[in-house]
Amino acid sequence: MSEIKIDEDLWDEDTEGVITAWLFDDGDSVSAGDVVAEVMVEKIQHEVEAPAGGTLSIKVAAEEAVNKGDVIGELS
Amino acid sequence: MTNENRKKRKLTIAKAMSEALAQEMRRDKNVFVMGEDVGALGGVFGTTQGLLDEFGKNRVRDTPISETAFIGAAVGAATMGMRPVVELMFVDFFGVCMDAIYNLAAKNAYFSGGHQPAPMVLMTSVGGGYSDAGQHSQCLYGTFAHLPGMKVVIPSNAYDAKGLMVSAIRDNNPVIFMFHKNLQGMGWLGTVKGSIVDVPEDSYTVPLGKAEIVREGEDVTLVGLGATVHQALDAAGELEKDGVSAEVIDLRSLVPLDRETVLNSVKKTGRLVVVDDDYQSYGVSGEIIATVVEQGVDFIKAAPKRVAYPDVPVPFSRPMEQHCLPNASKIRAAAQACF
């Protein structure tokens, strides 16, 4: 199992962001490198990629606030 | 149009527009992009993501805040054979560049006997609902659709956004490509989940001028465009609980307007509610109702209704703006009043 984690350097500021969209549904199969979610910080969109392939389990829903280092989903 | 076994992949409208632009720029060297913050930022509404890196500064041109100049330049480039895609960041700013759009681009094919058309796309954001007040929240569908010589389209989801953009770029007429801020998939503008859908990676077209029945029903026809399609779908879900079967039509294109799809639907249901987040008077809602009733009224079971934006400037205050905007409960009430 792999965690989908928000990289510490995904954005520069020390502010929280919000998941604006999950681009796959819970239970979808994704490949390593797929952009699975988008996170917005200060009106700028950042992409979150799947670190590995697998079946997606969403842990933090769209429109929820997130911080750098947060685990937002899992791949099994 | 693509193989059935391909992997599902959802995109926001912003990404779908960017992908359509990239694919058309690869296909045709005459396609280029101009506008404010379309370069490194990738567009304030995410419409030009990744383009600067792939195509460079000559084909992805960041402009100053100078709509009169750069939209005028796009019209000139288009009449000389290029296929510019220019972004008017907010449709509200059309005033300073309307001469280039309407007196030049829209009329040149006619004036030149078809020898010198202006094949350009003007993409522009529309809609409010996020407290950006009266100069950043208008739709102005009717303003543009009223004027002959231009096509006018608005997608309600990412699949249509990509296919309509490809069609718009390949069309020899100027096309006003309106995209609704609430549907763009950019968090600060409100995100309507129904707009983020599965989109094939391969290029494809969605024809300009063809409406889509997005939900079939028997008792009442709800007609919307852009964001109001999603409100109409929500209302249709509620109406089902009331025992009313609502058909929902997504216009997708205002010019050309697919009158036939609307007419056939109302001939079936006998009832019509038009939903429009543009100003009510002299606009889309009146045109749709006229389209139906001028064919006769014998098949109409109730007076057609409209849920549109009142004829007032868009308020900054959130409660006041929300009071003015169409929503699912207003649509549901309008539909119920047809029985």
If you average the pLDDT of chain B, what whole number results? 96
Largest sheet of chain B: 7 strands, mixed
The number of strands of chain A is 8
Q: Please identify the structural class of chain B as seen in this structure.
A: alpha/beta
SSE sequence of chain A, one letter per element: EEEEEEEE
Taken in chain order, the helices and strands of chain B follow as EHEHEHEHEHEHEEEEHEEHEHEHH
Can you give the helix content of chain B as a percent range? Answer: 25-40%
How is the quaternary structure best described?
heterodimer
How much helix, percentage-wise, in residues of chain A?
A: under 10%
The top level CATH class name of the largest domain in chain B:
Alpha Beta
Number of helices of chain B: 11
Poorly predicted regions of chain A are: none
What does this structure look like?
- The complex is a heterodimer of chains A (76) and B (339).
- Chain A is built from no helices and eight strands.
- With 76 residues, chain A is an all-beta fold.
- Chain A has a single domain (2-75), classed as RNA polymerase II/Efflux pump adaptor protein, barrel-sandwich hybrid domain (OB fold (Dihydrolipoamide Acetyltransferase, E2P)).
- Chain B has 339 residues and is α/β, with parallel strands linked by helices.
- In chain B, helix 4 links the parallel strand 4 (83-90) and strand 5.
- In chain B, helix 7 (227-241) packs across helix 11 (328-336).
- Chain A binds chain B through residues 18, 20-25, 28-29, 31, 34, 38, 40, 43, 45, 62-63, and chain B through 7-12, 14, 44, 46, 49, 185-188, 191, 193, 196.
- Chain B: Keywords: Oxidoreductase, Thiamine pyrophosphate.
- Chain B: InterPro entries: THDP-binding, Transketo_C/PFOR_II, Transketolase-like_Pyr-bd, Transketolase_C.
